[in-house]
Amino acid sequence: MLLKQDDIIQDILSSMYLSTRVFATTIFPNLFSSSFSPLHTQIFDLLDSGARKIAIAAPRGIGKTTIARTVAAKGILWRDINFISYVSNSATVAEMQTENLKHELLSNVYVKELFGDITITDTEGPKKAEESFSKKAWTAFGSTYVLPRGAGQQIRGLNWRGYRPQLIIVDDLESSEEVQNEVNRQKLKTWFFSDVMKSVDFYLDNWKIIYIDTMKHEDSLLMDLVQSSDWESCVLSICDENYNSYAPEYMTTEEIKREVERHREAGLLDLFYREFMNIPISTEDAVFKQTYFKYYEEHEEKLDQNKLVENVVIVDPAKTVKLHSAESAIVGIGINRSDGRIFIRDLVAKKLHPDELYAEAINMCIRLRARVLAIEVTSLNEFITYPIKNELSARNINIELVELSARNKKEFRIAALAPFYRKGSIYHNPSVCGPIEAQLLSFPRCKRFDAIDAEAYVVELLEHGERYFYSDSDDEPSGLDVFADMDEPAFEGWRVI
Questions:
Q1: Right CATH for 290-464 from 3.30.450.40, 3.30.420.320, 1.10.1420.10, 3.40.390.10
Q2: Highest CATH level, class, for 2-236
Q3: Which of these, 155, 458, 421, lies nearest to 286 by C-alpha position?
Q4: pTM of the entire structure?
Q5: By Cβ atoms counted within 10 A, which residue in 242, 336, 354, 463 is the most buried?
């Protein structure tokens, strides 16, 4: 009878070892008291897949942090892992989660029955865990070191008894506020890929990195990981686009719709999309929507031959000492004030060396027969304008150069395009405007702003030249014969440098 009971226990232990889901419900029934949803099944399947690098974008509130701690507990109890690093947005949060993990192990009757007392061993001999655990790093069974770490803290180079981190759990790393800042995003990514990723021993096959969070920005670290072919990942939503629940065990469709309505009334629908659907921008109340986009064909409009259309090229160079280290954008725009249409004709958006930037801008002017080249000069000034003027002179090209200065934050400049799009005044050339549309649809949490920031300067350019659309009642707009003589200035009233 005893042998049979031992066999049953061995079967249970084997099932728990092979399945994190079985382990969770068996050892921590109080933490996992509700039925698992299909979303949980996807998470557990990915955790048990054998992948070394796992990225999970999970909705808020389905227990992803509890699941992350459970993975750590499993490694501790089976003595599979000698060094665990639990990483969160701050050291305080990471310490709190490892303290929760410690409490869950020490207070759990099933743990004591199946695995015995969790003890630590030091030079003076074994001691009870309750007596010797510190509030920061601690050791379980004398064989597993648990180290909490906050974003930016040292992980690389750490070594405990000859072991480097073997399990790194990155839980809720990105701050909702800090992720809005491009500099902060890049700083966090640099730390993650240089410190966290290089802290494991790649010569061995005994390590795993689990990154679990909600999608807070199009350019978030989590977005980079789920889009990487080097990471096994899943992106989960609590519901579909019509707010029908994917996890009724956790939240029914009726509950979701009530939650949506509360967020909508509070003007926080974006928050619902991020926290529950892992979509950085609400498609319902987005600033720019797919339905706003109108299109035209170059061969039909023949904009470079239409004297009612004023063609301009706008350059928004990268704001770095080395221009080729970040994206610059050059956009060609046709403006027809007689019918109130703005045509986005051409686009170059990529990393460019200075000489490439000047050549691309001037070549676009020639290609579109643009008579105005407008350049955003904030922080660059003559370092960007002089080389272009020099290149124009060397090529004997008569183009007016207009200097633009950044006003307010780029988000405000770009938002000024919204009335034009809602009115249907802006038309896209479908062969070149893909990057612009992608950035507009994810605004203001775009992965990149280069193309739409360049486009947005058309509002400032029109104001500089006092170019306003004509009333529908105007039979014949005046002053449109400026292209009759190509030797005459294309735009009177522009501030020219």
A1: 3.30.420.320
A2: alpha beta
A3: 421
A4: 0.70
A5: 336
